[in-house]
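W.,

You were right to be curious about this one. When I first looked at the sequence I had no strong expectations either way, so I just let the prediction run and decided to look at it fresh. Below is the sequence, 1111 residues in total, followed by the output.
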Amino acid sequence: MASVFSSFFFFFFYFVIVSLSRVSALSSDGEVLLPLLNNMKVPNSVKSSWNSSDSTPCHWLGIECDLKHNVVSLNLSSYEILGQLGPEIGRLKYLQTIDLSTNSLSGSIPKELGNCSNLQYLNLCENNFTGQLPETLKNLHQLIVLSVFTNFLSGEIPESLFQIQSLEEIYLSTNNFTGSIPNSIGNATELTSMWLDFNLFSGNIPYSIGNCTKLEELHLNDNNLVGFLPDSLNNLELLAYMDVSNNKLEGRIPLGLGNCKKLNVLVLSDNHFIGEIPSGLGNCSGLTSLAAVNNMLTGRIPSSLGSLHELSVLYLNENRLSGKIPREIGKCRSLTSLLLNDNQLEGEIPAEFGMLSNLQTLQLFTNNLIGQIPLEVWRIPTLENVLVYNNNLSGVLPLEITELHQLKNVSIFNNQFSGVIPQTLGINSSLVEIEFTNNSFSGEIPPNLCFGKQLRLLNLGLNQFQGSIPSDVGSCSTLKRLILKHNKLTGFLPDFVKNPNLSHMDISGNLINGTIPSSFGNCTNLTTIVLSMNKLSGFIPQEFGNLVELQHLNLSDNHLQGPLPPQISKCTKLDLLDLGFNSLNGSIPSSFRSLTQLSTLILRENQFTGGIPDFLSVLEKLSELELGGNLLGGYIPLALGELQNMEYVLNISDNGLTGQLPTELGKLSLLQRLDVSRNNLTGSLSPLNELHSLLEVNVSYNLFTGPIPETLFKLPNSSQSSFLGNTGLCVTCLLGDGLACTKFINFSLCGHRSDQKGLSSLKIALIAIASLLICALVLLLLGFIYLKRRRPEKMVEIWEGRGASSLLNKVMEVTENLNERFIVGRGAHGTVYKVSLGPDKIYAAKKLAFAGKKGASVSMIREIETVGEIKHRNLVRLEDFWLRKDYGVILYNYMQNGSLHDILHEISPPPVLKWDVRYRIALGTAHGLEYLHYDCNPTIVHRDIKPKNILLDSEMEPHISDFGIAKLIDHSSASVHSISVMGTVGYIPPETAFTTTTTMAKIKKWDVYSYGVVLLELITRKKALDPSFPEDTDIAKWVCSTWNNNEAIEEIVDPNLIDELMDSAVMDEVIKVMLVALQCTSKNPSERPTMRDVVKKLKDAKVNLRSKCSK
């Protein structure tokens, strides 16, 4: 009995122990979950909740189970978890939901996820996952939602992913996926949302997408997709949102052909779509947003869009739309934003726009609109932004504008508005931006524009405003940019309150008088101050020293007096300091040595005394130093030779300097222009012999002696006027330098003895005999030339040519008798062939055919005579020529880099053209034209200057070509009759349309106009009649309009120059060259400079052309 009792208790205790162990042991799902934490760093709230002593994980944070205690949901979203998702996740076979979104998980997505066969919802978005989507995801046959957006995933989407029949939503946005969108997408017929945007997908949009008939959201924007939009998209009748913007899609827009009434948002922007906007889009009655910005759409805006009564946003800007704006748009009563800017729209703004009672933003700028802004528009109470600049709008601003309580931005610059601005503007609204530049407004500036204390930009330049600047401007502490330049403003500058926002101020070109207020020092973040060309007087305030961010200070052309305040030396970021043309005095403060960022220092035409400071050598970035026209004395400091970046101008003229030119000046290896004229300098000019970069020098009216260095009198722009007033200077003319020496006829030859008492009778007799012989030879030569010119046609028939016939034979041999495959160009007067006679003997042969063309041979002779008689480094040089009965051949040196047109517009990809190369091309071309206009006798006018006629050698040096149309005109002729208009459309000046007779001076201005167009092409890399311009707009009008807008050179230049513009010296030079070009292309010929002036302007950094260009 005892043994039975003992056995009972043994089995009882064994059962209890086994049962207890079974109750306390963690379930298998729990045992899978715990190792996941080994590779993760989780917050304590998660770590403490996941207890291994629990029997099941069903009560753990982020875990849900079914009735059988199987884990069906893992949700640890937004717990700032670090680490990796381990392969253990694949052992949770009952999982239906995984949400680990918005953490910092990294590594690859484990392929073991494919084992979770019950998974319906997988969300791993907003993490740091890398690698590819696992191919094993195809095993998730019940998957409904896949979300992995905002990670670093890459590779291609597996074709098998879209074989999952249950898939309804897929979010792959903002990753690095590549390859094409799989064609299998058409198998995912349950899809309602597909987000593939912000990736690197390429290829076409599959046609099979039209099978996804349940699709409601389609996001394909910001990829590299190409090809056409498939018209199968019209099958998606449930589609509410479609965005394909910022791709490379092309062709016509095939939408609007089906039932699109569910469509709310359609975004097609930033592609290459062409053709017209489909009128069928008017059937998409549910549209609230339609955007097709920055495409190549043409034609008229369809009036059917007026049927879209729910439309709140319509963006059709930056296309090539033309015609009038349909008045039906006024029926879109829900519109809040209407953007039609940057098109080619014409006509008037429809008065029906007044029915858009919810309109907030109206952008119609950069079109060809005319007429007035309808009064009805100014009565829309919700109006906030009106941007209609760069049109031909006119009229006055009505009083109704003052009642718009929501009005913030009015940008109407570059139009023809006139009249007085309503003086109460600003009182009833909180204006933010006022842009009225380049109109014809008059009267006074309204006194309360900053009444709402939110005004950031006030740009009223280039108008006819009168009166004083309102005190409201100075007390506007929110103002960031203030531009009042080139008006007729009078009175004093206002006092400025403390304003940390103001960065740019330009009040130049007015009639402001009085002193500069010391309160300028309150605007401590000013970077630019331009007060030039006014009538300011008094001292420069020492408070300028507070402006530690100042980079540009231009107070030139005023009546300022007194010494330079040393406090300016605190403005250590100064890049440009221009105080020229005032009455400042005293010495240059030694504290200026702290201005180490200075690249331009202009103090010319003042009354500064003392010497040129030695400390200037510390200003290592100086590229332009102008101290001319002062009362400086003493020696030229040796330290100036240390300014290795001195490139543009060194002007110390018109002072009282003495002593010799220091040899150290020879170290200025970049210097282009040197002016030491009108001083008391002595010694020789030999220190300048090493300045090989010089383009212009002026040493006149000093006491220099000895020979003029050969490098100086051979400068392209050198003339004896640059050396006059130095009686001790002489020239050394070597054999072959006759042309250079003729420019220095007033100087004696070095070594020539001038102390001879007289000539002997024998010498006089010999000279007389020699003179008679020379006269006889000249008469014989003139007679021979006369006889030859009497019979030019006969001469052509029998003349075998200037060069040896053997050379002609070689030319014909290597070109296979001028075979077409050797053609490198065609011009109006001939065909050009490339001739390679050896490694160093490459020529261009131009063939001109005469047969059947009356007068062709005469034209040939004219071209030969024209080209043969001139020699200049920037003009194509004729090497040889041969004439035959039916044709002629002219031989030139071959230019390795082709024409400027090729470099700018034809070669793909476009070659890099640094600014210094462009500037050299501009200056060289100007030198060539100057030579034709002023140094050739008779004068030569090209009359077809264009990039195709500017050839570039291996060093990118320009050479003007094609004188076949150049007309030689006797310089003594006062008038030229029956002028025939030559040239190329886009480069022909406007006055030729009504010119029948003209003068030599006016004909030269034709070349100046054409040259100005070429200059603008160099700067913008746009063609003279670029297709991107609005209709009836050429490059001159476009640049002028864009510049007058806000003087943003970045919007004008070739984008490849933007990086260089970070250098303020480069930006300043680009701007000045552009302004020269605009002056050259003035519609009024009398306002155009001569080519001689152009050369000077290109080299003269002081020229101030920032005035309103002619319209």
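Here's what jumped out at me. Residues 562-731 form a domain with the Leucine-rich repeat, LRR (right-handed beta-alpha superhelix) fold (CATH 3.80.10.10). And, maybe more interesting for your project: DSSP finds 16 helices and 64 strands in the chain.

Coffee later to discuss?

I.
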